[in-house]
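[Meeting: bench + compute handoff]

Bench side (C.D.) handed over the final construct sequence. Compute side (W.E.) agreed to return the predicted structure before the next meeting so the bench team could plan truncations. Sequence as handed over:
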Amino acid sequence: MRVGLIEGFLSRRYLGFWEAYLKALGVEVVRAGAPPDLHKPYCLPVQGLLAQVEALKAVGVDYLLLPDLQGGVESLKGGGQCPWLLDLEATLRRYYPGLPPTLKVPAELSERVLGRAGEVGQILTQNPMRVGRALDQTKSLLKPPPPLKTPPGNVGVAAQPYLLEDEGFRKRVEEALAQVDLLPYFPDLPPERLREEGDRLLPMDLPTDRELLGMVHYLHRLGRVKGLILVVSYACPPIPGLLKRATRRLSKPHRLLTLGEEWREALLALKREMGV
């Protein structure tokens, strides 16, 4: 039995437990590695996702492990207008022919994941005793990872959570800011705290929207942060619209930037407004 694993789309939050659990079940886990860019007409993170799916399909997997990004919450507001954010599994099935059977799992870890882990184990092994042993071996891993560390910068960086937890994205942001002698400050609160912050700014339904707005609210109230950049993926209209609503409540200098475009002039203008 071979199960394909996807990097990105909040994989940092859930994949550590699931990879260990699958191995404890005796299942072979397969990662896509660094597949080529397929140049699909989607935003950059989705292009990377589809490239991984294509690579896993090529090597052959029996199942594909996919995250439930929203914890079962449905909404047509904000990110709910983007099918990739609302239901990754259903959207892949709609747009991607020949998708392997999928195993949908929560994108965040807690003791409640044990029930789904038991169901997945039974699907893969049909052996309750093996499932029980695997759960005993790995349930200690059901702890959310701590937030990534952030440099003590002066520019707050807000982006969809699946972007902000990508090390490559963080590096690109750091390099772009360094070109104009600015330093990033990435949100350093756990997701549940950021969602609480988001509820204070704008009421939204989807967890990822609440977390994104929470980044804006949290960074805006930090004294060390003198300005903000709000980064979006291109071809994803709902998110820029959501952030534009949020910016109406900001008093600090800010810029809405698009991933993959040239930022230098916008960052220079932001720096002048920050007075640094």
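W.E. noted at the follow-up: The mean pLDDT is 92. C.D. will use this when planning the next construct.
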